Queue: 3 jobs
Job 1
Amino acid sequence: MRSIKYLILSLAAVLALSLGAFAKDSNSAKFDLSERATVGSTTLQPGTYKAEWTGPKNALQVSIEKNGKTVATVPGKLKELPQASPYSSVTLKTLKNNSKQVDEIDFNNRTEALVLSGM
């Protein structure tokens, strides 16, 4: 009887610990960039990227990754949206030299947008 109790407790502990592996990482999301644009001092080519952020909502440290490698790190902040974004989108800002800069990233089904410029 005692061994069954320990077996059940062990299985419950393993299950509880493994649930973290399946949890959605709420501080990262993928986005597609359709044209060349800068993030900080880095020029990104069109493609699929992943944004990861840490810190308080108004003073984030944002890392942009491509193929698992960090390609840019910039400050950012989260902005509340009135409703969940129906799709992922990137808002670009045109600079004086006619280059584009990533201004905001809205993520599919999320109520927060990541703001990168104008800090």
Job 2
Amino acid sequence: MLRALWQQFESLSIKSGILCRSFYDDRGMVQWYQLVLPCEMKVTFLELIHADAAGHLKFAKCVPHVIRRAWWYSCRRDLNLFIRCCAKCEGYHRGPPPRQANLNPMLIGGPGERWALDLQGPFPPSNGYKYLFTAICSFSKFGVCVPLRNKEVLTVARALVDHVFLKWGLCFTILTD
């Protein structure tokens, strides 16, 4: 740390008894001061920056907050370690999303063997109908859409029988969510 401070000797100054680094603009005027932080104050400073000023941001977004205010020899390494050990951040982090499996085709022999059923709604009422019953043939992608007044079991069963089974025949399987 002493070697790093010695290399920056021209930019160091003492302001109100505190060792600071000076940063200059294009005209040679002091733009801002950066505190040279003692080792005893690192944890307290990182807690203030990470929890309050930065709002539990990850490393890349938290670095500018730290660099703008203070410097010590291993500030980036210490910040990274502090964030990785933050209980609140690690409690929220879920890790990478799980890998999804490849899609497998649905093997169906012919039309009408499998129907995919679903209910949508409630929608704004139109002539008293608030729900939609949909049935789609998985082989041909032919769709049947029936408006329903409610989604009771008898109403849905009546729509299934009247608009699918009686018109297109019985199926082998029904796919629902």
Job 3
Amino acid sequence: MVSKSWGVALGRAVAAAALTIAPIVARAADEAPSPPINPYTGKTEIALEGKSLFNQYCSHCHGPNAVQGERPRDLRRLNIRYRENATATFYTTISTGRMDKGMPVWKGVLNDEVIWKIYTFLESVQSEP
């Protein structure tokens, strides 16, 4: 059995720890990176350029013009699979790769301008949910 004074002391220690940690947690939330934003969304002329870049860099695995029958590699289904996280998932995957699934790391090989042009093309070919 725990004595009452020990329980009170423990309660105060927990409260003090919470007060110490709360600003750190709040600061971490404020410093969390914003989701990536495609600067070219909706720009048809960029989508056409992105299509060409896609076919140059991505079609060997994801099919010409993003037409791929294998669901895991069918990038026309990004919005269906990832919904509001599609942009962040795309950017993270292309930047860090998925080596276990055969997806190489493209960050450093392709600059952000090329990456976003490719994504602009992919936005233009998304299947309806």
